[in-house]
Amino acid sequence: MREGSLEAPTRHPIPWEENTFTDPNAIDSELRRVFDICHGCRRCFNLCDSFPRLFDLIDGSESGELDTVDSKDFKSVVDACTLCDMCFLTKCPYVPPHEFDLDFPHLMLRYRAMEFKQGKVPKAHRQLTKTDRNGKLAGAVAPLANWSSNRKNVTTRTLLEMAAGVHKEAELPRFHGKTFDKSEGDTAVKDAPSAGRKAVLYATCFVNYNNPGIGEAAQKVLAKNGVATENVYPGCCGMPQLEQGDIGQVAESAREVAADLLPWIDRGYDIVALTPSCALMLKFEWPLILPGDENIKKLSGAVFDLSEYVVEIAKENGLSGELEKIDGGVTVHLACHARAQNMGPKAAELLRLIPDTDVKVIERCSGHGGSWGVMRDNFDVAIKVGRPAARQAAESGHGVVVSECPLARDHMVQGMEKLSDDGKAPELAAVHHPIQVLAKAYGLET
């Protein structure tokens, strides 16, 4: 094996059902093996806070080496990992098939699975991962829920921080009473370039409960181009549970969602996930968690990320005309979980389909990391990690800032706010995802 591992990285199935997977001694041994290699390499020093914490931990030890670091101190390194996968995919020269066989994010996941098994994940954190239950309950009283979660509401946000550990300054998504899976959609244009194609829009918990406008924009853009769509949402993909190490629940969700989506594939439908984290789960994480499940394997081969899908139909058939330029330009952040899909910068490709529009691309991490960045213990670090991305967005001068991950976009806007001289949020168009920009270029109301 050549130094540098220029071969395409590969990932092993996750043996989460084996006893050794959550064995503390086995995990400690693997942590020490991997951390020793990372300490000698340091290529990932600027990706997230896990690596600076690791290097400082070892450098500050009695011997300056790993042998004098107490294992209990490893937890801070694990807690700083957002499972973004960027170290595995963009930096590490020792990922498989290299003989060192490093997979840092999945080792952090293994540690969290051990903690979950030991009952060390706080109850409040486990409750936050129940996105379907929370979305239904909050959606039923959406005005009250949104009022109480507004960060300007100091009293309720202070109480939320005390009860659930959610930082009182962190921007939180809004809830909607009308969920996206209840949307009827638009009729596909019969003489459009992609007429005859059919796609299921897997709503995802975020779009379904928090931002149905993204799904509505996808419906309108695809209908304009002849793609007939159906909205389907059997349940959450399990990413929130994965972050907490509850792999068993992820497997259960995977089986249930796959059983609901597979009949649509047999009827000739493509499966389009509306957020990149969920596309990553269906394409890559589920098959690693359930490698012997043929249903999961079949589903993973039929899934598209939303930006990926629009770019594909544009390349294969061309888009319907009448796209108008976006005045003032667009800045797009490439979400880590979109980059982790190894499909190229599809969000940027999508926006460059709009004529005469200046598009600037941000490839730095926003720092948000799903639910990680809103927690009291992580928010300040999340802002720090996302500062380079926020600075690039602010310096672009564009009135439209979007990300394939809407949560990352809002977090980045908070970072822009903190960078401003007056401490105020910039005046930006109320769009979050690139598909909403494309819909506006078509003149479609969303």
CATH architecture label name of the largest domain: 3-Layer(aba) Sandwich
Q: First CA to last CA: what distance? A: 52 Å
Tell me what portion of residues adopts beta-strand conformation.
5-15%
Reading the helices and strands in chain order gives: HHHHHHHHHEHHEHHEHHEHEHHEHHEHH
Question: Might you state the CATH topology name of the largest domain?
Answer: Rossmann fold
Q: Can you tell me the CATH class of the largest domain?
A: Alpha Beta
3D architecture notes:
With 446 residues, the chain is α/β, with parallel strands linked by helices. It has 4 domains: 99 residues; 42 residues, no CATH class; 135 residues, Rossmann fold (3-Layer(aba) Sandwich); 120 residues, Rossmann fold, CATH 3.40.50. It is built from 22 helices and 7 strands. The strands form 2 sheets. A 4-stranded parallel sheet has the order 2-1-3-4, with helices on both faces. The protein has a 3-stranded parallel sheet with strand order 6-5-7. Helix 11 packs across helix 22. The chain is globular, with a radius of gyration of 22 Å. It starts with 23 loop residues before the first helix and ends in a 5-residue tail after the last helix.
